[in-house]
Amino acid sequence: MIRVVLPFHLRTLARLDDEVQLDVPPPVTIRSTLDALEARFPALRGTIREHGTLQRRPFIRFFACKEDLSLDPPATPLPAPILDGTEPFIIVGAMAGG
User: Are 70 and 85 a contacting pair, CB within 8 Å?
Assistant: First the structure.
């Protein structure tokens, strides 16, 4: 089981109170995790990735084991602590402005 932590606004959209647990078939990558998340919660389609290109939306960041994976290719495998459920895959809505 992959644990996914979403920012408040996406949890609200998906009608969640807490983190999500997803069954993601191997190989577990950034892309396959996001695919599983959007399949389970269709309301999230287009909020994390662009509809047509599936590129990460601006101001959305991905973290795993305290590492920023936001600029890594979507086919990047997630680290072992994510796969065994000891660490969550974290999606953050970045802040901007002054």
Answer: no
pLDDT digits (tens, 9 = 90+) for 41-85: 999 999 999 999 999 999 999 999 999 999 999 999 999 999 999
Contact 90, 42 (CB under 8 A): no
24/29 Cα distance (integer angstroms) = 9
**What is the torsional sign of CA 61, 19, 34, 72?**
positive
Burial degree of 89 (CB within 10 A; 0-12, 13-18, 19+):
buried
Domains, the chain, ordered by start: 2-93 (3.10.20.30)
